Amino acid sequence: MITIRHLRKEFPGVTPLKDVNAHIEKGEVISIIGPSGTGKSTLLRCLNRLETPTSGEILVDGENIMQPGIDLSRVRRKMGMVFQSFNLFSHKMVIENVMMAPMDLLGLPARQAYDEGMRLLELVGLAEKALRYPDELSGGQKQRVAIARTLAMKPEIVLFDEPTSALDPTMVGEVLAVIRNLAREGLTMMIVTHEMQFARDVSTRVFYMDGGEIYEDGPPEQIFDAPGRERTRVFVKRLKVFEREITSRQFDFIEINNAIEEFGRRQMLAPRDVQSIQMVFEELCVQTLLKVMGEPVALTFSAAASALDGRCEIIVTYGGASFDPFETNAQDLPVKLLSRRVLAHSHCYAESQNRLVLQLS
User: What angle in degrees, to the nearest 10, is found between the helix axes of 94-106 and 139-151?
Assistant: First the structure.
């Protein structure tokens, strides 16, 4: 349905979209996640030409909508958009808000627009509010009216720009429930959201955006359970990371040990977890790896604490020949000490680089 090629958008002093490429098929539900300021909303606004891209191509049903002289009204009728702010006309009743665009832009007779509007209000659970004014509704109800108004134009795809960000937490669920129902009906949707569980539940694909591009693209099971790239992993697991690179055997051990303790305090880790991280650093890196490594010394120690479940993970990368201390040196005292604090570990070797991942118990 949509093909995006090398899309770029520049503003004075900032470039939110640097090189975006994607294909969206009919019926897909794509959640767009990522840190603030990484171009998620700008991408949606470029897709329906509320923003004019600096360069690149956007093809909708094979038609390049960036070509000169394109009928933007026709393009936008294919792509409905639901904004963070509801943008309802406060002086018109709910049903009038839903009826306006089909009558003005599609030429629907008033009776037909009314009947279709009531059907859509029933779909979003608000038929009884048809004769109310927007100011009489809660935030969640206003957003559901905005969704009904968008659907009234019979779009082929609906773009949701953080549809719950302006809502009180108690109202988020009712809007997400409506979007879930639309997904079950096979409507094509792209949703910018910070609701990770919702993105996992409703999406067929997830775009993780970072650095002005789609950094990783895959099914929700991949993105949330087994992300293939490091920045995705850090984001979805809400990890707070401590990292040090060691390039000499004469490094400052005391400084790193104290820095681990400070990291633990800032992240409010349990004292046992802090001690485990310090133990892994000393017994694995200092007492084991540095003793078997040749020159030059190249070792990176990374400790991550999840803000979601408090779990700690340590990743150590080091050069040289393939070497897994838990296999090769399993009977050595340092490795035995580590085994008491390590719940699971995995080792891989590629391009002369060892990568050891430890899950702390």
Answer: 20
Q: What topology is assigned to 2-235 in CATH? A: Rossmann fold (3.40.50)
Rounded to the nearest 10°, the torsion over CA 64, 68, 69, 71 is 30
The domain segmentation of the chain, as residue ranges, is 2-235, 238-360
- Give the strand pairing for 2-11 and 55-60: antiparallel
What's the rounded Cα separation, in Å, for the pair 280 and 277?
Answer: 5
Would you state the pLDDT for residue 216?
A: 96
List C-alpha distances in Å: 6 to 64, 67, 341.
13, 15, 47
Q: How far apart are CA 356 and CA 138, in angstroms?
A: 51
Q: Which CATH number is 238-360 given?
A: 3.30.565.10
Spans in the chain with pLDDT lower than 50: none
| Separation of alpha carbons 51 and 9, rounded Å | 9
Sign, CA dihedral 274-275-280-281, equals positive
- The token duo for 88 is 């309802």
Q: Is the CB of residue 48 less than 8 Å from the CB of residue 79?
A: yes
Question: Full-prediction pTM beyond 0.90?
Answer: no
Triad 235, 230, 344: Cα angle to 5°: 95
pLDDT at 241: 83
* pLDDT value of position 47: 93
CB atoms within 10 A of CB 29: 24
Helix axes 139-151, 169-184, angle to 10 degrees: 20
Return the DSSP state at 94.
Answer: H
Angle of helix 253-266 relative to helix 271-279, nearest 10 degrees, comes to: 150
- For residues 65 and 199, give the distance between their C-alpha atoms in angstroms, rounded to a whole number: 28
Which structure tokens are listed for 283?
């017994």
Output the pLDDT for position 171: 83
User: Which pLDDT tens digit goes with each residue over 252-277?
Assistant: 999 999 999 998 888 888 888 899 89
Whether 172 and 141 have beta carbons less than 8 Å apart is answered as no
Q: pLDDT for 159-190, tens place per residue?
A: 999 888 878 777 888 888 899 888 888 889 99
Q: How far out from the chain centre does Cα 338 lie?
A: 35
Please list the helix, strand and coil fractions of the chain in percent, rounded to the nearest 5, in that order.
40, 30, 30
